[in-house]
Specification:
Blueprint (H helix, E strand, L loop, with lengths): L6 E5 L5 H8 L4 E5 L3 H8 L10 H6 L3 E3 L10 E4 L14 H11 L7 E4 L7 H14 L8 E4 L18 E5 L2 H12 L6 E3 L3 H31 L4 H8 L21 H11 L5 H11 L1 H11 L8 E6 L15 H11 L3 E6 L5 H8 L12 E6 L14 H5 E9 L11 E2 L1
Parallel strand pairs: 1-2, 1-4, 2-3, 4-5, 5-6, 7-8, 9-10, 9-11, 11-12, 12-13
Antiparallel strand pairs: 6-7
């Protein structure tokens, strides 16, 4: 079959699936399915709640949007991009990837190729997904159907690094599958498309990308706590150290979301199953998971002298800047610790990028429409949204704070002289 004649079926239309479906639809007949009928309806009306695509951009695409997975049955190449979270015990929650695989197996045909983009531990595709596809479809792996893995590298909120200009890793279950997967991705990727020798190598490459980043941030978070005790400004130290050619510049902060705060647990889970305890990775996770409590404690120290009810404004509640995603946001852990430590606090949470209904549904927290003027004893800049630098919010201390108000800038967002204290 010629490459041009392949039809693409994308399963999952979140931060990863929608950009992939959008790019493939420019080169191939593309079908895209999401189990959320609300999501499909919104996209059909050219609205993207994830803020990745504008009305005009969505209107131009040629994706065949489907709310029934059977509508993808004419596709030859299926790309699964569903979330792979962890549960409350930090164990991989594979329910969504298993469910998507089971549903896909019902329409799988001879000659089809299934490519996974969801983050997993090394070996998961062959150990968990392939047996499900074989059992339910009655087809033989690497004879009737084929598989591949191509790790996603979508960076929500980042307009400069998009799917087309980021290097793309691909792998296949045999030489035929690898050749086809490589060729179809080459049609949409302007950067390099890099082949790996096995699916396991590609899976491992993805999971260590975020594990490495998590450890780097964990190191800086620990250093920031040491420098705080030494009364040394962390940002100044980092800038000085960055003058060396091989210094990797990271800043301290809360590590949440569906990637960096999650992916290391996939690797450590598999490692423990094999009998090896990954002490360094888990130590980094412990530091980063404890940062919420550290931030809350540091904030409360600045309010010790206030005897009356204390008013706090928290600016930003999404897991990272310039995106609406609240999944695994550690800002809510900060809020929980603050409430637990001091019942007299009055907390106002403000985030123009977050969905108010989603926040309330998930955390039972009502976001405010607008901060009160000259009202707050403490302002915590928790998420460095670019919108907080526009004229409406650029001077929160003078606009919303009372005379004794302090600003706690978690991300070095404002000038050093403007912030009262930082991480």
């Amino acid at each position: 079959m010629k490459i041009k004649s392949f039809k693409i079926g994308v399963i999952g239309l979140g931060y990863v699936g929608l950009p992939i479906a959008n790019e493939f639809s420019k080169k191939f007949t593309t079908y895209a399915y999401d189990k959320s009928k609300k999501r499909i309806l919104e996209l059909k009306k050219y609205f993207d709640r994830n803020m990745q695509f504008s009305f005009k951009e969505l209107k131009k695409n040629r994706i065949n949007l489907c709310d029934n997975l059977k509508s993808l049955s004419t596709a030859n190449i299926f790309i699964i991009t569903v979330p792979t979270p962890i549960n409350k015990k930090n164990i991989p929650d594979l329910s969504l990837i298993i469910s998507a695989t089971k549903e896909l197996s019902k329409i799988l045909k001879k000659g089809d190729i299934v490519v996974y983009e969801s983050t997993v531990y090394p070996g998961l595709t062959k150990e968990i997904c392939v047996p499900i596809l074989e059992k339910n479809s009655k087809l033989k792996y690497n004879f009737d159907f084929f598989c591949g893995y191509s790790p996603e590298r979508i960076n929500p909120g980042d307009k400069s690094k998009n799917l087309k200009n980021i290097n793309k890793i691909v792998s296949g279950s045999n030489k035929y599958a690898l050749k086809i997967i490589y060729e179809i991705y080459r049609k949409i990727i302007k950067a390099k498309v890099i082949k790996t020798s096995s699916i396991e190598v590609a899976e491992a490459a993805k999971v260590i990308e975020n594990t490495q980043r998590d450890l780097n941030i964990g190191l800086i978070n620990e250093l920031s706590q040491i420098f705080n005790k030494l009364n040394i400004d962390t940002e100044e130290v980092l800038k000085a150290a960055a003058s060396k050619w091989n210094f990797n510049y990271f800043t301290p902060g809360l590590v949440g979301g569906h990637c960096i705060g999650v992916d290391p647990y996939y690797l450590t889970y598999k490692s423990k199953k094999l009998g090896y305890n990954p002490s360094i990775i888990l130590a980094g996770r412990k530091v980063n998971d404890n940062m919420s409590k550290y931030v809350a404690d540091k904030a409360l120290l600045s309010l010790k002298k206030i005897k009356t009810k204390k008013n706090i404004l928290i600016m930003g509640c999404t897991f990272k800047e310039n995106c609406p995603d609240i999944r695994n946001s550690k800002v809510f852990d900060v809020i929980k610790h603050l409430k637990k430590k001091d019942k007299s606090l009055k907390l106002h949470i403000f985030d123009p990028n977050a969905d108010k209904n989603e926040v309330y549904s998930e955390y039972k927290i009502k976001l405010i429409n607008k901060p009160k003027k000259k009202y707050y004893d403490l302002i915590i800049l928790a998420v460095s949204h670019q919108i907080f630098k526009n004229k409406n919010y650029a001077q929160p201390l003078t606009k919303y704070g009372n005379k004794l108000c302090k600003l706690f800038d978690l991300k070095f967002f404002y000038k050093q002289s403007y912030s009262d204290f930082r991480l």
